[in-house]
Give the backbone structure.
Amino acid sequence: MSSSQPSSSPSPLAASIRHAIWLAIFIYALVAIFLFVFSPKTQASEEQALHTQLLYDVLGRVEYDDGGRFTPVKDAAMLQELKAMIATHQLGSAIATAYIRNVSRNMLAWAASPTARLLPQQELGSYTLRFVRVDDLNVAVQNFWIKHADGQREEFQMVLALPAN
């Protein structure tokens, strides 16, 4: 009995197609790994981390007074740190800004400089830290409130804006 068996070696065309498929899969995997490691989100996350840290560092060096305003903490070392942060990041200049708006009294409660660039008021719906883009600035916005002895809440909005890269 003779039977004809198909040849088990692949044709050169089939082998080439298989190699091309494996090469494409390999390239897609490399691109995926590259995008994961060097993701644009990583850069955005680093910028947001800087904004967050700077916002809370500034906020930690000012204190509330009963007039609805904030003033630098009356500690020489903390005042020096605040001044250094303002100078290093050029807060209060034409290219960056940091301030606290007293929303309840509709007034500026604190600013990095008397000529601080004020941005349009951001929405107040949330007390979580948000990041927005306003003109040429990346802006971190933190809404918060202070409860007085009489139970009244006073609403504030801390804004820190640095130039967008």
